[in-house]
Amino acid sequence: MYDRVLVPTDGSDAAMAAATNALDVAKRYGATVHVLYVVDVRMSPISTGMDREEVLDLLELSDRHPTASVRARAEAAGVPVVEAVRLGVPHETIRAYVAENDVDLVVMGTHGRTGLAHALLGSVTERVLRSVDVPVLTVRSGAGPPPESDTDE
């Protein structure tokens, strides 16, 4: 049913909860997990004159690679993993990654913002949900993996 499961990450608790669910789904279906970190160009050092390659090189040299924790969890679970770091507007970059990599399922965390905070900040998850043509599983921070299926596979 699923061959490629995308979990965009920003390192938050909600993203880690999504990763837990993505790894569980991938393990159940023998899928590969794609973990994607998007450097938001609207808030990146590009405004200081750094170009795209300099930003990506800086991330590579960092001792805190933004996809490393999900990669380590996937490897420990025996789930194939592909890491990617992209520069762009998060929801647009996620949408493009889904199309370019023939992703079957996107698993994303939600931060549970409501009211004014949601209106002012917007929601990457909501924008992805509205703009991709594949299922999107949303996971709240602290949520565990989906319950075991009662059906035989």
TrEMBL record:
Pfam families the UniProt entry points to: Usp
Highest taxon of source: Archaea
Gene3D superfamilies on file: HUPs (3.40.50.620)
Span of domain UspA: 1-140
Family: Belongs to the universal stress protein A family.
InterPro entries: Rossmann-like_a/b/a_fold, Universal_stress_UspA, UspA
Protein name per its UniProtKB record: Universal stress protein
